[in-house]
Amino acid sequence: MGPQLFDLREKSSRKLSSDPVLNGNAPLRGFTACGSILFTFLMSVKTSRRVAFNSGPLPVVIGIMTFTVPLFVGLGFRNIFTDGINPNYMPLKKALSERSVIIASQSSILLPTTTYFLSELKILNSEFGRLVLSASIINDLLGVAFFVLAYSSGTYKNISPTTAYTDIVAMIILFFVVFFVFRRAAEWIVEQTPEGKPVASKYVHAVIITVLASSVYSTFFHMKSLMGPFIIGLFVPEGPPLGSF
Question: Which domains, from first to last, does the chain contain?
């Protein structure tokens, strides 16, 4: 029946906030965003990069095909049913651009979700699990590259070329900072932790703050909020102590 049954949305909103302007949606959106950020990070941490990138050429072919085939098929049907688009609400050109982004998002497999299902089925380290994981990583990397270009293109056309170039440079800087600074800091934390002992709480808190900050950074530069946590999760050293959150 959905949230409309018995006015559940209105009742829950009034409990979360008595302010009619906020109506409880802001706290709900905040909880949802934090949950998505931490879930994406934790599932990315569970991903074995060493195993994923040493499984031969088959996962690469599967990863490329699973992204490009749905993408091009979807783009082939993009111009269908455009008569119902109201030009006063959204220009046709902009509507087609949004359709392209939606098609690309549906073509992406979402690595954190794949990792979660493989982990729940206890086949993450099996031959089939490694094949799926490798293909998902290739698919996600293509998706990230497409989204960076798509978002930057939209910024270039609708805001300004300078802002678009700034966003691209900011994403490149984020990648290099994670690769050269965060990765080495994570390795140093592992070296400082005695064998068989858990990571100190201050280091765990520092990692979580870094993940949340990377999400804010990605959003500030007009990218998806999950891009920063996803990249950071991939560069956390595998296995205990830090990689076993």
Answer: 39-234 (1.20.1530.20)
